[in-house]
Please model this.
Amino acid sequence: MTKGSRSHKRFSRRRAQLVKQIEEKGIKDHNVLQAINSIPRHIFVDTAFENRAYEDSALPIGNGQTISQPYTVAAQTELLEVQKGDKILEIGTGSGYQAAILCHMGAEVYSVERHEKLYLNAKEILQELGFRPHLKLGDGTLGWSAYAPYDGIVVTAGAPIVPEDLKQQLTVGGILVVPVGDQKSQVMIRITRLSEEEFKEERLNHFKFVPLIGEKGWD
Ligand code: SAH
Model:
């Protein structure tokens, strides 16, 4: 696909307006808002959608997938309570935008994507922007055990159930953010690992994600 212009400065006014909108919708974490203000979202979408990159909406990125709505990215990131240096695993690299937000916030980012084209594309863009996340092509419903445990895990596709492997790949004190439901609507679930065996579960707002497809996801 034709990629958008690489300039960071382009659209800076629109980006600031988007941040204001997201703040009005309830996002408070200053580091999250600052990351949204800094990452050029238009670079992560096809040039045909460049002009819509700073609307608060999901947009197509090919392979039937979407770059999540900016509010959704902000909400999931806020729930993760990211601290500088945290090891964060993302399931569903997609465009790479969420990974860029996490890198900007100083996290050590691991991200898994099942579509090769999206994986390669995200790799190129993130590299160009100077970010160095660890990317993998594969089934993220199984997590990424080689680098576990993680301080935070974020699933950016809708799951039928909470994937058990992901819970087991959290540090004690670690947070898993995963949308769970049917393919039309999902409730955002935040799971905090309290000890080796104990987990706290919070059920939050409803969202609509593309399906998480894999061994522990949808067929
Ligand atoms: N975080 C992305 C959102 C992409 S949409 C962004 O910022 O753009 C969700 C992504 O999850 C899609 O790219 C889809 O291909 C991917 N996905 C779905 N099931 C997956 C799985 N089991 N493992 C890895 N990626 C998966």
